[in-house]
Task: structure prediction
Amino acid sequence: MERVKKLLADEEYQDYLQKIAVRELDREFCGHNIEHCFAVARICYILWLEAGCPEKGFIDKEVIYVTALLHDIGRWQQYDFGYDHARVSGELARDILRKLNFSPSQIEMMTEAIAAHRRRENGRTLLAQLLYKADKRARVCPVCPVKEKCYKYETLANQDLY
Result:
């Protein structure tokens, strides 16, 4: 998990997290901070384990974690410009993944999963499907103090949390 450590120390990654934090200072709904990203990573890995770690479509634990840690890095551009943060996050992740020495095929799989993480129908790969599910399950809507105000509550409140 050496590349996870390198990612967490990466200045560009830290800059994206800071940009998101500044824009979410007064956000009353779920945030997109490092805790959320780690929750997504852990859930995504558990889902992969529960799928039986399929040999066809094998996904390295480090690939799962780095993908999840990067999945929201473009969120600040959604706040500033209205862009789809999933697509932007996939684009921004590409350079970071190169710096972390992932292979071209891993980078394609990871950036595709990141770009598709908002919509179930976009998940063509196993990693994309797992990331989508993990991102949704990382939100514990039934105990949210502002659930009545949240437009996602009706959709997410009835989902499996396990």
User: Anything to note?
Assistant: The chain has one domain: 2-156. DSSP finds nine helices and no strands in the chain.
